[in-house]
Amino acid sequence: MKYKINQINKWLQMLNEWFIRRLKIRYFRVFIVLVLVTAICIINSPFSANILLKSQAQETQYIASLQQSKQLYEAGRITESINVLQQVITNYRNQGIKLQQAVAFSNLALAYQKLGNLNQSQTAITESLNLIQNQKSKSQNTLAAILDIQGSIQLDLGQAEQALKTWQSAESIYKKINNQNGVVRSRINQATTWQVLGFYRRSLTI
């Protein structure tokens, strides 16, 4: 039995040597490179996993901060909410995450609007729109929600006609994505704007 095993091992060794000799040297070099690359990937994979976990942990922290700013806003602690949002925006900017930056800026715009700082509110909502409109895979629902906020700020600034157009754009998006609640909300906003413009009968047809 031992003799047969030795013979098989010898035969396998000879077959292996024959196979290598038959390969062209360039293919053998490619094989070596692939082996090295695979080894490097295996060595680095724990590090990559750590980066991913760290990124996920940061994202969770940012979302928690957004929730905190919302709670502060609802509690009437607007200035504190603004401070939290500014830090969240800085964190997202450092990470290059533009969609979440856009959301944070829209919340910041609402907070400034609540304080009556309409110029700062307008600056924040403009920054929000610039960020989301430059995204190739932007969320239509998020864009429409940001337009809702922009329309509200425009109305407060006395720009009723612009606000009307903004809410009409939001309604169009809500229709495309079949968001009926958004459509209703946009139409209510439009009706309010028609009344501000003096067209009471027109507001009843929305």
Could you characterize what this model shows?
The chain is mainly α. The chain is 87% helix and 0% strand. The protein is built from nine helices and no strands. The chain has helices at residues 2-22, 25-74, 78-95, 98-115, 118-133, 140-156, 160-176, 180-196, 200-204. The protein starts with a helix and ends with a helix.
Structure summarized in a few sentences:
87% of the residues lie in helices and 0% in strands. With 206 residues, it is mainly α.
**In angstroms, what separates the terminal alpha carbons?**
93 Å
**H/E element order:** HHHHHHHHH
Please give the largest β-sheet.
Answer: none
**Residues in helices, as a percent range:** over 70%
Taking all residues together, what is the mean pLDDT? 75
* Tertiary shape: globular
Category by helix and strand content: mainly alpha
Uncertain ranges: 2-54
Query: How many helices does DSSP assign?
Result: 9
The tally of strands reads 0
Q: Quote the beta fraction.
A: under 5%
What is the CA-based Rg, rounded?
30 Å
